Amino acid sequence: MKATIMYGAGDVRVEEVADPVIQHPTDAIVRTVRTCICGSDLHPYHSMRPSSHGQSMGHELLGVVEETGPEVTTVKKGDLVIAPFAWSDNTCPTCRDGFQTACPHGGFYATRQTAGLQAELSRIPLADGSLVPVPGVTEDDTPVLPSLLTLSDVYLTGYHAAFMARVRPGQTVTVVGDGAVGLSAVLAAKQLGAETIILMGRHRARTDLGVEWGATHVVPERGDEGVQRVLAITDGLGSHAVLEAVGHMPAYEQSYRVARTGGVISRVGVPQYEEAGVGFRSLFGRNLTLTGGPAPVRAYIEDAIPQVLEGTIEPGRVFDVTMPIDDVPAGYAAMDARDALKVLVTV
Amino acid sequence: MKATIMYGAGDVRVEEVADPVIQHPTDAIVRTVRTCICGSDLHPYHSMRPSSHGQSMGHELLGVVEETGPEVTTVKKGDLVIAPFAWSDNTCPTCRDGFQTACPHGGFYATRQTAGLQAELSRIPLADGSLVPVPGVTEDDTPVLPSLLTLSDVYLTGYHAAFMARVRPGQTVTVVGDGAVGLSAVLAAKQLGAETIILMGRHRARTDLGVEWGATHVVPERGDEGVQRVLAITDGLGSHAVLEAVGHMPAYEQSYRVARTGGVISRVGVPQYEEAGVGFRSLFGRNLTLTGGPAPVRAYIEDAIPQVLEGTIEPGRVFDVTMPIDDVPAGYAAMDARDALKVLVTV
């Protein structure tokens, strides 16, 4: 089968590799219908040191079950399924709390344990917990497939930001970052009833989609100027919730500066820093709350599927380019150059 | 009148100073019935550089209104009143949000703007917002006075920690620190329904009061050993909420290590650091929430007064030593030596 392997910064290849096989009785093998490239895949694309054996890539998958291990009970051959970007048992106390990304028995794709999902076939561990069937939909229902795929990561990561910030009707929400996750956070904040949604971003094609999804204001300025713009929009008070979908330190600092006293900063951009300001001058003095983390999309996916199928939301619009799997290297380059917002991959 | 002035580390004096006078039409003059010494007063007691003019001290006050400016409408001469440790208008958007400690028109005592409250008389700015009358109680109702005084800071600071952590019935709560605020946080967590309350502290007389107030476990160990003890008590999962009432970095690090995935760390100990770990390894990876700040006790005080008067809570038990104002320097020394948990001052 074909799979995506990264050999170093800027060096992504699609190669023939052995088909995956059932290794544990709880595994399933899934044939890819749609996969995609994530903004987080660009981190190694920028920085990975050359490697002779390479690193398999991808963690987003909509597919059809091909085979199940003897202990799998909740999905069967032929089911259309979504694979959340982390696998988990979905039964332990941590999963029952709704934080499946930290399941002590689970893990992540494209790691030593499990291959990446930008491939024709994938082995899914703990399939009962890690796959969610989409009843009544087949792989021929083309228009709905992109939005279903976003439930494996990008849309529900944006939703997690808004959920952890406890966005409520009437609130003012600022979204930092106009990437696919930031735009998803706009859509989620709107679903949760935010009245004013300020999108901080400067890429017009992207912010236009943000406006369609509910952003009431777009602030292209950054730093001091951006902060002043947000404060001006909010009567000098700042934003009840700030959804941070970037992960770099300037975005963190911008976030606490535009937050209202007593407000919440909710991060879903993986922080590219370990230490940051949390003392009197940054968070403590104004009773700011800092929250967020890797999105446990598994916790939200069953509620989101009907929203997609009924057309309430169409998060698949973040995909502005579609390519066959052979062209995945060009997809990385297009996202890196910001020629593509997010690349959908067919097989 | 007598007032408390600090001239440098370890150098506190009670001196005769001019009586305060009404400076603004919204001011009130309050005669002290009870005041006290705060753990935070020990920070300058340790570190203040020698000063020839000195620094007035104190921010906790139960007193009787002596005089009001012409624009004061909600309190009158003769009222027994509690002064929250920050003054505020209590009408602006920030105050209405419940964060009066950040009121843009307010401020703190013992600053350039306003003298400290360890004195016989005090000028209270914005008296309508900054004083809360206690109807039906007089300064002769001695037994209830200490608990009423705790509503100006210590008890409601502990309450703020539990409130911001959204402690709910059935949860496990860990309190870091067995000072007066930490013990108050135990009492507040119990009021909010916490089922398991783990108090991390090593001063037996203090932790005994914590147990009376609801602590189900006391963990005297610190560092790795303390973390392992808490994890053992919580089936390896950690605590839903961690109430941090210390303010030093080791307490911060201990807090995120004993928090359950998806849990909350709520700080009310003023952080003696500005930067700290917030990235994947500390907060982000396990979706931990960090919250807290200077307690807006003004927001909670009206609900707490009946709890005190009905005897539901007796937070005044944190006072284990009572001294007249002339002995305040000895009170600082006793708290610094941990001979006293918290010193109540009479005038």
Automatic annotation (TrEMBL), chains A, B:
Entry keyword annotation includes Metal-binding: yes
Lineage per the UniProt record: Bacteria, Bacillati, Actinomycetota, Actinomycetes, Micrococcales
Organism superkingdom: Bacteria
Residue ranges constituting the Alcohol dehydrogenase-like N-terminal domain according to the UniProt record: 25-135
InterPro entries: ADH-like_C, ADH-like_N, GroES-like_sf, NAD(P)-bd_dom_sf
Residue span, Alcohol dehydrogenase-like C-terminal domain: 180-292
Name of this protein: Alcohol dehydrogenase catalytic domain-containing protein
Pfam family, one: ADH_N
Keywords: Metal-binding, Zinc
SUPFAM superfamilies: GroES-like, NAD(P)-binding Rossmann-fold domains
Tagged with keyword Iron-sulfur: no
Cofactors required: Zn(2+)
